[in-house]
Amino acid sequence: MLEQETLHAFVSGDERALEEVIDTYSKSLLRYCISILCDVEEAKDVLQDTFIKAYEKRRQFQLGTSMNAWLYRIAYTTAINAVRRRKLRFKLWKASEDISPAQESYISEPLYSILSSLSVADRALLYGRVLDERSYQELSHILNVSESTLRKRFERLRSRLAKEVEHRETYAKEEWVQ
């Protein structure tokens, strides 16, 4: 949490304040971007773009509000745009069959398969609730969705993931027996 003095300096364009903002939030934002994109290198690019956008839009930040939620919102929209660009790239150019996306992102193949089947919004919700342990109220500000909608979406997501894991375990047992 940054002091109000630092936030005032950031809004005014002080580069030292920008460095403090980056130092304070970069690790958690990077983890957040990785959870959405499932790709470390792309997440680093999105993180850099997030801080550039934050600095460019610093005058839009309302003092007295959460810098954390504001940065997460910028990171979320930047990550969604990256996913859209990625989909467009894959449509225009087919990736080599030798290397799977999971191998490039350092995530196990089953986990990558499950996460990539989720929408970006669901991955962001899952990460925010499970790994970051954020409240629905805070996620509501970040994702720009009502708390009740997020609660219901998370219930459905948990149920869907449990069924998917169960299905995969059953399939793996059947394959092992044969």
Low-confidence stretches: 95-99
Percentage of residues assigned to helices: over 70%
What is the overall pLDDT average?
84
Counting helices, strands and paired strands, the structural category is mainly alpha
**How large, in whole angstroms, is the Cα Rg?**
19 Å
User: Tally of extended strands?
Assistant: 0
**What is the multimeric organization of the chains shown?**
single chain
The secondary-structure element order is HHHHHHHHH
Shape: elongated
Strand content: under 5%
Termini separation comes to 56 Å
Number of helices: 9
Major sheet attributes: none
Describe this structure in words.
This protein is mostly helical and 178 residues long. The chain is built from nine helices and no strands. α3 (40-56) packs across α4 and α8 packs across α9 (147-177). The chain is elongated. 22% of the residues are buried.
